[in-house]
Design goal:
1 helix; elongated; 4-stranded antiparallel β-sheet; single chain; 88 residues; 49% strand; alpha+beta
């Protein structure tokens, strides 16, 4: 992605989600958070870690993904795991 202040947040989030999927091989579900930081952005991306039946038992995780001003992932870390059906 080309560094630009005019790149919409949606495009930045989509690029971060797609790069995380390529790096981990995990299916991405949603962007659950976004923060602008010095030199780039941080996104919280929810992914499927273990698909189960019923779907409410599927194990999900949230990853914090840091990207630089050009949109390239510079770091990612799993910050939590949870069962889809849990209301907490």
């Amino acid at each position: 992605m080309v560094a630009s202040e005019t790149v919409p947040a949606v495009a930045r989030a989509a690029a971060a989600r797609d790069q995380l999927r390529q790096l981990t091989g995990l299916e991405t579900e949603a962007i659950s958070g976004m923060t602008r930081v010095d030199g780039g952005w941080e996104f919280e991306v929810d992914v499927v870690e273990v698909r189960r039946v019923p779907d409410t038992a599927t194990l999900l995780a949230t990853y914090r993904v840091s990207v630089d001003g050009g949109g390239d992932v510079t770091r990612y870390t799993r910050v939590r795991r949870f069962i889809r059906g849990d209301a907490g």
